[in-house]
Amino acid sequence: MKRPDIVTLVTGLVLVAAGLFSYFSNENRPPTALIGPIVGAILMACYPGVKNANKIVAHVVVVLTLLFGLISLQMFFNSYGNDELDEMTRNRRVMVFAIMAVACLTATALYVAGFIQKRKERKAAEAGK
User: Fold this and answer.
1) pLDDT of 15-42, one tens digit each?
2) CB 1 within 8 A of CB 115
3) Residue 66 and residue 80: Cα distance in Å, rounded?
């Protein structure tokens, strides 16, 4: 993977869009629906650091993305099995959490693949010296 910065930007945009959709499609406007957009905004704010190959920022982005992906996955399963919600609310929650979980976990996999690729390239360069 050559462009982790693009993955970070796209993941942030997906989280913002999915979270805002959830927030505005719920007439109660729950503040917790804004957690996804906040995480997405943080990821987008980290874009310049990832683009400039700042290792600390890149690792923070990976950890944040992984944690939010796991939380979204847990909320997906909680929403999917929740019979107390009406069908439309449950379906909306399932869809939003599925989108956020897939985006975050896919991004995490791409980040890790990129780290492995860079390590292999570094070892090959050292062996070639």
Assistant:
1) 999 999 999 999 999 999 999 999 999 9
2) no
3) 21
